[in-house]
Amino acid sequence: MPRALVVDDTEDLRKVVRRILEAAGYDVDEAQDGRAALERFRAQPADVVLTDIYMDGMDGIQFTRALEREFGNVPIIAMSGGGVVQEAPATLEVVSRLGARATLTKPFSADQLLAAVARVRKDRPS
Fold first, then answer.
1. Sign of the CA dihedral with 100 first, then 102, 106, and 109 last
2. May I ask the CATH architecture of the domain 3-122?
3. What pTM value is reported for the model?
């Protein structure tokens, strides 16, 4: 069973993403910030990581950089509504340059989420 790690400081969003991914056949783990997520990934790597950008502690940009530095080629999807919605596209562009393979602007649909997950898993080099 493929494994996903969902990182977001909003519990309700984590629960919704978890339900969508579990219905699609994923084993899902959650973390509320980048530091906890890095520990969870070290303990049990995931096939895909979905991370928010704006979080207290280790934010999504720091987390993405740490994952890429430590593990290399990780399929990461960055999610953000941006502190200000107009900032979301620019923020997601920055995190794409740091290693995220796909981005989602909140709010997003279940179809958009599943399409992004399928895309990053398909694009993963062997």
1. negative
2. 3-Layer(aba) Sandwich (3.40)
3. 0.88
